[in-house]
């Protein structure tokens, strides 16, 4: 391999939020969705070159960045978008919050699958919006929403459907048929759609293919805000560069108006990093996916061999959703934390019986974590 993903980079004494959570504690942090891999050399080189200039005033989004993204969506996902559809943001979470506020009124409800990445629910709560959760269930070893079940709960005041594709947690990559079922529901009830597709490049399952919700048809395009970022793909989360793709000019105007005076523009260094990643980072990404896929396969076998734990292999992402209901413990998150492994608590996503494990790390570190988890279970 041209890139060394086995390299163990010491982040314990850095400014890493992931590692600082357990500063001065013997806990392996496998929680927040931030990998331990060095970012692509092309990104590091581009940042060095820009830093050497020495002046960091207000910047503008380079025209080539929009062109690169349009070409990337066309070539990877057969989705034909235009540069004037793009609204650049300093982070994807701000896009969730802006979508919530721009596309709903206070008396309207938001429809969203559950369990789900916590920032979706936080965005709704912050805006004072009620939520209609759609339960996720295992179907043939894939986490899928019970759309038929939620239809009976629709009251007529729902206005926004919030999707996460690939789904976090669980790692489901929705098929065209599954997305079309969502679209039928959104069209029938005249819902806007906000689709978080930040993990779209991290497809691990052979044969699975990411399909942007807005690419389904023209109606889907006109009712959707798609949120993307290079941050998960290329480990650039600390730099903060994201984008909302909005084909509908009226929708885009509402979104931009909600940003005014609240959401800052993207800094010059994040724009440089995003440009380099989308332009030159794919050779690195190919090898990253091979490494993550091997980690996923190894981890799935290891977890399912431990008494009381169950896990299905995620089709995408580097996040394992682990069912710990079989353990005789009150709080699986605390149980494993006390054993020296820091996971994400399932309660934050909507189900306290689960924990989420980030396997975006060296195999050596992952093996150490599994050894600690195994020892904790065996010792009771």
From TrEMBL:
Example GO molecular function: cysteine-S-conjugate beta-lyase activity
EC number: 4.4.1.13
Cofactor(s) listed: pyridoxal 5'-phosphate
Top EC class for this record: lyase
Segments forming domain Aminotransferase class I/classII large: 26-372
Keyword line: Lyase, Pyridoxal phosphate
Residues spanning the membrane: none
InterPro entries, per the entry: Aminotransferase_I/II_large, C-S_lyase_PatB-like, Class-II_PLP-Dep_Aminotrans, PyrdxlP-dep_Trfase, PyrdxlP-dep_Trfase_major, PyrdxlP-dep_Trfase_small
Keyword Lyase in record: yes
Entry annotated with the keyword Lyase: yes
Family: Belongs to the class-II pyridoxal-phosphate-dependent aminotransferase family. MalY/PatB cystathionine beta-lyase subfamily.
Matches recorded under NCBIfam families: C_S_lyase_PatB
Protein name: cysteine-S-conjugate beta-lyase
Species of provenance: Biostraticola tofi
């Amino acid at each position: 391999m041209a890139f060394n993903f086995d390299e163990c980079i010491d982040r314990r004494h850095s400014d890493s939020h992931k590692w600082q959570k357990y500063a001065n504690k013997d806990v392996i942090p496998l929680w927040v969705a931030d990998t331990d891999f060095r970012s692509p050399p092309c990104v590091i080189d581009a940042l060095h070159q820009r830093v050497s200039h020495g002046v960091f005033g207000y910047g503008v989004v380079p025209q080539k960045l929009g062109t690169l993204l349009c070409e990337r969506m066309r070539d990877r996902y057969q989705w034909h978008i235009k540069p004037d559809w793009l609204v650049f943001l300093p982070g994807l979470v701000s896009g969730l919050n802006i979508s919530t506020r721009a596309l709903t009124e206070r008396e309207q409800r938001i429809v969203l699958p559950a369990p789900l990445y916590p920032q979706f629910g936080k965005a709704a709560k912050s805006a004072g919006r009620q939520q209609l959760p759609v339960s996720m269930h295992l179907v043939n070893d894939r986490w899928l929403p019970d759309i038929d079940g939620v239809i009976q709960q629709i009251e007529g005041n729902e206005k926004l459907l919030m999707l996460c594709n690939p789904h976090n947690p669980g790692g489901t990559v929705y098929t065209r048929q599954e997305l079309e079922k969502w679209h039928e529901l959104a069209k029938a009830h005249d819902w806007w759609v906000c689709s978080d597709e930040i993990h779209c490049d991290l497809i691990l399952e052979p044969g699975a293919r990411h399909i942007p919700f807005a690419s389904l048809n023209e109606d889907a395009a006109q009712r959707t805000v798609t949120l993307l970022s290079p941050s998960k793909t290329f480990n650039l989360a600390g730099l903060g560069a994201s984008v909302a793709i909005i084909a509908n000019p009226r929708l885009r105007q509402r979104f931009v108006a909600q940003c005014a005076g609240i959401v800052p523009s993207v800094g010059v260094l994040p724009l440089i990093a995003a440009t380099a990643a989308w332009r030159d980072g794919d050779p690195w990404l190919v090898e990253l996916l091979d490494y993550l896929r091997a980690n996923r396969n190894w981890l799935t076998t290891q977890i399912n061999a431990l008494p009381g734990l169950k896990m299905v292999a995620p089709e995408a992402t580097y996040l394992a959703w682990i069912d710990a209901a079989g353990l005789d413990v009150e709080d699986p998150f605390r149980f494993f934390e006390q054993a020296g492994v820091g996971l994400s608590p399932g309660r934050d996503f909507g189900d306290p019986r689960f924990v989420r494990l980030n396997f975006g790390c060296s195999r050596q570190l992952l093996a150490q974590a599994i050894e600690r988890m195994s020892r904790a279970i065996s010792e009771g």
